[in-house]
Design a protein that fits this description.
This protein is α/β, with parallel strands linked by helices. It is built from 15 helices and 20 strands. Helix 13 crosses helix 15 (about 495-500). It is about 35% helix and about 20% strand. The strands form four sheets. Strands 7, 8, 9, 10, 11, 14, 15, 16 and 18 form a nine-stranded mixed sheet that branches. The protein has two domains: about 1-165, 3-Layer(aba) Sandwich (Leucine Aminopeptidase, subunit E, domain 1), CATH 3.40.220.10; about 180-500, Aminopeptidase.
C-alpha cells in the first residue's frame, strides 16, 4: 500500500473514502470531524443524535456523501474514552479503519490524524502509530493461495491529510520511519508463516545475505565445518539428526562511532522442531515451523536499523538448524561441549533452543558487546506463566529491562520480568557435566534462562521468551489487537527498534 501525506483539508479530499474520528461521549463533533460534518450539512451530528454513532472504541460507521463533498464515502471511527486514549489506540483505530474499508470494497482512502487535537498526542508519534496500524493491520499472508475471492480488493493507497503546511515535513518523515519498521515486521511475519521446507537453514542464510546486500550490512555465514572448528558443540549437536545442513548467520551493521562496542542481538533459528529423539506429539509439531521466529526477528531488526540509519553498531547472530530424529541424532544422556567450553548434559532433545543459543550467545561475547538481547521461542512454560499476550523477560541488567519496558509501553509489545534467583540453578546441575539442559517441569522458563546466563559472561543481557507472543491465534487467550491479525506477529522488531532508537538517550 502506498502511503503519502498531502497539505489540505480533509473535507476537500477527492478519494473513494475519507476517515474521521469521534471520542465517546462527544455530542457535537469538532476539529476536522466537525469540518466534515458542516460540509455534509450535519450528517454526522444526525447520526450521533439518533444513537447510530457513539464513538465507542473501534466502532465504525460508513456512509455515502451524496455528492456533498468530493469524497464518495465517509468512515467515522470511534476512539473510545478520551482518558484511555494513547498510541496503541491510534494503531488499533487505524488498523480497524483500513481493514473495514478493504472489506467494504474500498481500495484508496484519505485520513485525518487521530489524537493530535484534543487527544494531546505528539504529531510524529501519532503519525507513526497511524501508519503502523494501517500496514500491520492490513497484512495478509497469501503466498500459497491460488484461489481468491472475486470480490476481494487490496488497499492500494492511504493519504494523510495535513491541515497545517508547517507540519507536512514532520508527517512525511514519520511516514517513512513507520513504513520501514512495519515492512520489516511484515517481512518477519512472512518468514515465520512460510513452510519449513521453504526456509531451511541454507535458505534463511540466503535471505540474510540478500537483506545485507540491499543495505550497509556485512553478512557472514558459517557452515558446519566452520562451526566445528569453533567448537560449537551445542549448535551442531542439535543439527546432527537432520540431512539439512545448519547455518550460523552473523550480520554486522556499523551505524555508530567507529570502534564503539556493538549491541548484540541473538535469535533462535530452529527452522523445524520435531523434538529430536525426544519426539513431540504430532499435534504439537503443527506450528513448529515457527520455531525460528527469534532468528527472523534478528534479521528484521538489522534490516530496519540499516534502512533507518540508526546511530548504533549492531551484531546480529542467528544459529539456524532443524531438530529432527535420525541415525546420527544427539541422544538423551549425551554430553555436548559448547564454544565457550561449558559442557551440557542433554536429558531432553526437545530442549534444543538453549543448546543452539549457548553457542549463539557465547559467540556474541567475542564481539565485546556493550549489551546482549536474545529472542527465542524457548519454553511452553513461559506461555503457562504469562499466556500468549506477554513476552517473558529475564536478565542480568535492570537498566536494559527498564529500556524494554519503556519501549513496550510505546509499541504495545508487552514484556514482563521473571526472577533469576540463584536458588533455581540447583535444578539444572548435572551429575556428569557442568549443567543439564532441562530443570524439570517447575519454573521451566526460569531454569532455561539460567542456563543461557552462563554463556553471556559479564555482558549486560536480557532474554526474551517469545514462545507465546510469536503469533496470534484468534482465540481469547492471545492478543486481540486490530493490527495483529491471526498469524505471526513479527514480535521483537518494533520493540527492539524502539530500544535502539532511544539507546543514546539518558536513562
Amino acid at each position: 500500500m502506498q502511503i503519502q501525506a498531502t497539505h489540505g483539508r480533509i473535507e476537500e479530499a477527492a478519494d473513494s473514502a475519507i476517515v474521521v474520528n469521534l471520542f465517546q461521549g462527544v455530542n457535537a463533533p469538532g476539529g476536522a470531524t466537525g469540518a466534515v460534518d458542516r460540509a455534509l450539512e450535519g450528517m454526522i451530528a444526525e447520526l450521533i443524535q439518533g444513537g447510530d454513532l457513539k464513538g465507542k472504541f473501534k466502532e465504525v460507521v460508513l456512509f455515502r456523501t451524496g455528492g456533498r463533498i468530493p469524497a464518495e464515502r465517509v468512515l467515522v471511527v470511534g476512539l473510545g474514552d478520551q482518558l484511555e486514549f494513547g498510541l496503541d489506540r491510534i494503531r488499533e483505530t487505524s488498523a480497524r479503519a483500513a481493514t473495514f474499508l478493504r472489506e467494504s470494497g474500498v481500495s484508496s482512502y484519505t485520513t485525518i490524524m487521530h489524537g493530535t487535537g484534543i487527544g494531546g498526542v505528539d504529531l510524529r508519534e501519532a503519525t507513526e502509530a497511524l501508519v503502523e496500524g494501517a500496514l500491520l493491520g492490513s497484512y495478509r499472508f497469501n503466498r500459497y493461495r491460488t484461489e481468491r475471492d472475486e470480490d476481494e480488493v487490496e488497499l492500494t493507497s492511504m493519504t494523510v491529510a495535513v491541515k497545517d503546511a508547517e507540519n507536512l515535513e514532520t508527517v512525511q518523515e514519520a511516514i517513512q520511519w513507520a513504513r520501514t519498521v512495519s515492512e520489516a515486521t511484515n517481512f518477519v511475519r512472512d518468514l515465520v508463516a512460510s513452510p519449513a521446507r521453504d526456509k531451511t537453514p541454507r535458505e534463511l542464510a540466503r535471505v540474510a545475505q540478500e537483506v545485507a546486500e540491499g543495505a550497509s550490512i556485512q553478512c557472514t555465514v558459517l557452515d558446519e565445518k566452520q562451526a566445528e572448528e569453533l567448537n560449537m558443540g551445542g549448535f551442531l549437536g542439535v543439527a546432527r539428526g537432520s540431512s539439512e545442513p545448519p547455518r550460523f548467520i552473523i550480520l554486522e551493521y556499523h551505524g555508530g562511532p567507529k570502534g564503539e562496542s556493538p549491541i548484540a542481538l541473538v535469535g533462535k533459528g530452529i527452522t523445524f522442531d520435531s523434538g529430536g529423539l525426544s519426539l513431540k506429539p504430532a499435534k504439537s509439531m503443527e506450528t513448529m515451523k515457527e520455531d525460528m521466529a527469534g532468528a527472523a526477528a534478528v534479521i528484521g531488526v538489522l534490516r530496519a536499523a540499516a534502512e533507518l540509519k540508526l546511530p548504533v553498531n549492531l551484531v546480529g547472530i542467528a544459529p539456524c538448524t532443524e531438530n529432527l530424529p535420525g541415525g546420527r541424532a544427539t541422544k538423551p544422556g549425551d554430553v555436548l561441549t559448547t564454544h565457550l567450553g561449558t559442557t551440557i548434559e542433554v536429558l531432553n532433545t526437545d530442549a534444543e533452543g538453549r543448546l543452539v543459543l549457548s553457542d549463539g550467545l557465547g559467540y556474541a561475547t567475542t564481539f565485546n558487546p556493550q549489551a546482549i538481547f536474545d529472542m527465542a521461542t524457548l519454553t511452553g512454560a513461559c506461555m503457562v506463566a504469562l499466556g500468549r499476550m506477554t513476552t517473558g523477560m529475564m536478565g542480568t541488567s535492570e537498566e536494559l529491562m527498564d529500556r524494554l519496558r519503556r519501549a513496550g509501553a510505546k509499541t504495545g509489545d508487552y514484556v514482563w520480568p521473571l526472577p533469576l534467583y540463584e536458588e533455581y540453578e540447583e535444578q539444572i546441575k548435572s551429575d556428569i557435566a557442568d549443567v543439564k539442559n532441562t530443570g524439570g517441569k517447575y519454573a521451566g522458563a526460569i531454569t532455561a534462562a539460567l542456563l543461557l546466563k552462563r554463556f553471556v559472561k559479564d555482558v549486560p543481557w536480557v532474554h526474551l521468551d517469545i514462545a507465546g507472543t510469536r503469533k496470534t491465534t484468534g482465540e481469547a487467550d492471545s492478543l486481540q489487537k486490530e493490527y495483529l491479525p491471526k498469524g505471526p506477529t513479527g514480535v521483537g522488531v518494533r520493540l527492539l527498534i524502539q530500544v535502539l532508537r532511544d539507546w543514546n538517550q539518558a536513562t
